[in-house]
Amino acid sequence: MSLATENLCVGERLRNVSIQCRRGMVTAICGPNGAGKSTLLSCLADLQEASSGRVILGEQPMRFKSPRERAQWLGYLPQAPDVAWDVAVEVLVSLGRLPWSDAPAGENAKAIEDAISAMDLEELRHRPVSRLSGGERARALMARVLATQPGWLLADEPLASLDLGHAAALMRRFRQQAQQGRGVVLVLHDLATAMNHADCVVVLDKGEVVAEGPPETALTREIVSRVWKCRAQWLGDPGERALSIASPSLASERGMRILD
Ligand SMILES: Nc1ncnc2c1ncn2[C@@H]1O[C@H](COP(=O)(O)OP(=O)(O)OP(=O)(O)O)[C@@H](O)[C@H]1O
Prior knowledge:
It is a single chain. 35% of the residues lie in helices and 25% in strands. The protein is built from 10 helices and 12 strands. The chain has helices at residues 37-44, 67-73, 89-94, 105-118, 134-148, 164-179, 191-197, 215-218, 221-228, 248-253; strands at residues 2-10, 14-22, 26-30, 52-57, 60-61, 74-77, 152-156, 183-187, 200-205, 208-213, 232-235, 242-245. α4 runs antiparallel to α5 (134-148). Bound molecules: adenosine-5'-triphosphate. Adenosine-5'-triphosphate (ATP) binds next to α1.
């Protein structure tokens, strides 16, 4: 089952965006600031009204799904999530089970425990959200999404406040979720993470898709240089790539052409 957009337009923010994300795969949405990544992700989560075009989940347009079905299918982590109530971590995570309120209590309890453990929150479970660090709060919010065990995980810059170890663990978790048959769609600024961990990359620029496909073809150095306007070069072996950005002064000393 896929999650797709067909000629999606949101004012000037997205222009005729047609993409297809597949279950069992990790899809990364990349692009410079203001490219429309968060707008696209919120459309996929059915939280943003389109001016035209549509979002399709499986065989059906999203609008045919009931609110409950959508809540069960789509787990969404916004870029800067608000927490309306200052509840304990465990309570926050349990809110992820609201779409499954009629599931057996044991099933709900296990999903909550699994999510708390996945995000390394055992020792923080009784702490109010207001007394968490930025990264701990980000992990608690991610745990709430994981607790839903949705068919699709949609996360907007989920690694932004995480330390190296927790970021690596979360990327492993996303891979595991995909292997279990879920669809994973991530907005990522770190192009090396997209290159090494995604199965498919969508590159957006000024509201349009400029590349889509396996990371090696969507994030070539030419595309990175053109879209992000910096001289970049991939180093290392597949799966362990690093992106080297030339310093403008060094590049000009060496006679390289600097992009405008
Ligand atoms: N509520 C809004 N109404 C109108 N325009 C908006 C709104 N939110 C964002 N925009 C504009 O839409 C464009 C796309 O925004 P979006 O947040 O999708 O970009 P992004 O690619 O996620 O950027 P970033 O990397 O900075 O998070 C930007 O030019 C932004 O200024």
